Amino acid sequence: MSGALLLAGLAAYSWVMFHLAWKQALAAEGFVDEMPVAEPRDRILVVAPHPDDEVLGCGGLIQQALDAGARVDVVLVTNGDASELSLIFGEGDLPLGPDAYVKLGRMRQKESLAALGLLGLPENRVHFLGYPNNGLLSIWRPEHWRYVDMYRSPYTKVSFSPYERCFTAQAPYCGQQVLSDMLALMYHVRPTIILAPHPQDLHPDHWVAYCFTRFALATAAVRGAEWAREAKVYGYLVHWPRYPAPRGFAPGAKLLPPAELVAGDGGWLKLPLTSEQAQAKAKAIRRYRSQEPSFDRLLLSFARRNEVFCRLPAMQAVYGEPVHWEDEANHQRGLAGADLRGVSLLITEGLAVEAEGWRARREVPAKGYMAVDLRTWSTEGAPVIITIYVANGGRVAVKTISGHSPLPPSKARLVSTRDGYFQLRGVALPESVKECGEVFVTCWGSVRDRVTDPVVAGELWMTK
User: Which pTM value belongs to this model?
Assistant: First the structure.
């Protein structure tokens, strides 16, 4: 008995010390700024990977924006038609058939409509894209980007959206179609403010939904849309270890971002909510009955006296000068992901890419790889995708999908690999990079395509 009490005491002490360190770190980083108040002229687009994310991250903001007279549109990228437990236990099916997963997707659509209706958002401002739950990373990758290489969901067993309520009827499961849908929505809304998942959210569907959002916005800008250059982008977080803390329904408590992420970028903002808005958010969260009871305690943890968002501006970079990303806290994320620690990227005046990356603690596991993903545009504004996979044992593979203009020959080579460290040289970019001055970069580690660990997900504006 005494041993059990000792263990309980140590656990309680660790928990208290964790919270004290968390609050001290937030105070040291100056987490004091407030989210700008929505104005009647604002057009707000909320991007949610799954039904419930839109209310968990932005339920209070949606209420305040509608009260201010702003326009609000919500886009659900997937219908959540696979249990989140499948992310933990692998890509294999849980004991449900394809029809049951589609039925779950339809149920979650109705839950989102009911929840958002409680917050005052009409149904015609809710847009379902119908893409596969736990499949967005595969669709983002070049292997399933084109219409001829569609992705097949291991849950619903289809390669197109089976849902009646869908932005594009029978939308093909490929990156081209996701980009097309996101672009069409953005041109329709012309958002001044975009709320998207944080690019370091540990759920692949979340950070990839951010990538699609940002890449679509940059594509519109490259094609001449002025509103796309002026739109402000903010991130909200759902999946992170011990977040929110403490767990459980506590509407009078503060919602604080993880100290690790605050220390990383310092761009977090708080949006105070009235008690009525917090209660309305909690009531809306309870509409997601398909997520009960397993996730009920977690979901209600987001109904607090404030919401938190992170500024996500594009990064400025200069030809010939390296850009560095560090992520010391990444070992605290994920479920045995590939655990990238940092990346350095350089784009030379001659439009050749040099990259290096390193890992914390361990080698790339079996069936794992690190990927450096560069996306830009041809002179016609068509996407150009170059993804470099670095596997354990020094193997390197380059996957390229070009737009209408031919790419220069790529002479990518792996200079060295040791202790998880790699250097890449000779990755060629098209001349259109100098014309548009933009490159979109992602970098991640992956194991069996299901558990990922993003280090970089952002847009570079290149200057001379």
Answer: 0.89
